[in-house]
């Protein structure tokens, strides 16, 4: 059973968000079954059975790429960072932060999605026994996020990305959750548009004021999206 709040935030993630502890630490609880490749939240007692294939697990294998955890830590550090300056007498003056002071969070949020997508597609192609040179070529030819979630995803899964989002949202709802992956991806597109405006137009003052909060709150949804994609397309059934 999932334990998501009304806005889709996992309660454990919500507590970390309020406490200031590392948001990336939630992902350290996820392991991958060496028998069926299913990703699950590890149990505190061992051995235990894989929730997908029931194989007995004595020692789990961590799932989350370290770069993902590092990006989340950087986003959180930027979010909590104090903006200060020193006056003529050497005293510290705390300044009020304005939205443009958080620009790095938008860039990191988009990079987080791209790293997850790269990890998912690479893992998917490895599971299909594609040669490394072919994997490298496909990722290189489809380097844009739009191409990777578009033609490359569809080629590898025989299913449009939008259909996958709808299916995963329905499965999450059936499990008692409130995550809407179509809304999560709509946020990803909004963040990417703002990122492109910042990089190519220098528009550091013209992104929506609530975008920074959405970048932080959607960390959970983005993480769960790619874990769910893995379990649907990579884990053995």
What layout of secondary structure does this protein have?
Blueprint: H1 11-19, E1 30-32, E2 39-41, E3 48-49, E4 56-57, E5 61-62, H2 66-80, E6 84-86, E7 92-94, H3 103-127, H4 132-141, H5 145-157, H6 161-174, H7 181-201, H8 211-233
Antiparallel strand pairs: 1-2, 1-5, 3-4, 6-7
Describe this structure in words.
Helix content is 55%, strand content 8%. It contains 8 helices and 7 strands; from the N terminus they run H-E-E-E-E-E-H-E-E-H-H-H-H-H-H. The protein has one domain. A hairpin with a 6-residue loop joins strand 1 and strand 2. The chain has helices spanning 11-19, 66-80, 103-127, 132-141, 145-157, 161-174, 181-201, 211-233, and strands at residues 30-32, 39-41, 48-49, 56-57, 61-62, 84-86, 92-94. The two termini are 20 Å apart. It is globular and about 65 Å long. It is mostly helical and 237 residues long. Mean pLDDT is 88; it is low at 1-7. Helix 7 packs across helix 8 (211-233). The chain has a 3-stranded antiparallel sheet.
């Amino acid at each position: 059973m999932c334990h998501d709040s009304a806005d889709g935030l996992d309660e454990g993630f919500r507590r970390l968000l309020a406490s200031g502890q590392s948001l990336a630490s939630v992902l350290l609880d996820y392991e991958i079954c060496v028998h069926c490749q299913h990703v699950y939240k590890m149990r505190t007692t061992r051995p235990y059975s894989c929730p997908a294939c029931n194989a007995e697990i004595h020692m789990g294998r961590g799932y989350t790429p370290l770069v993902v955890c590092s990006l989340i830590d950087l986003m959180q550090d930027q979010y909590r960072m104090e903006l200060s300056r020193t006056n003529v007498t050497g005293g510290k003056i705390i300044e009020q932060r304005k939205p443009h002071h958080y620009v790095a969070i938008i860039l990191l949020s988009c990079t987080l999605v791209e790293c997850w997508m790269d990890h998912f597609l690479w893992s998917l192609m490895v599971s299909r026994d594609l040669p490394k040179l072919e994997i490298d070529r496909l990722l290189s030819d489809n380097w844009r996020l739009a191409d990777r979630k578009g033609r490359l995803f569809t080629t590898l899964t025989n299913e449009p990305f939008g259909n996958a989002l709808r299916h995963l949202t329905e499965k999450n709802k059936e499990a008692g959750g409130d995550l809407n992956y179509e809304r999560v991806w709509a946020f990803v597109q909004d963040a990417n548009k703002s990122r492109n405006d910042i990089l190519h137009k220098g528009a550091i003052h013209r992104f929506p004021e609530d975008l920074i909060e959405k970048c932080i709150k959607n960390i959970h949804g983005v993480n769960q999206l790619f874990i769910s994609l893995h379990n649907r397309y990579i884990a053995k059934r």
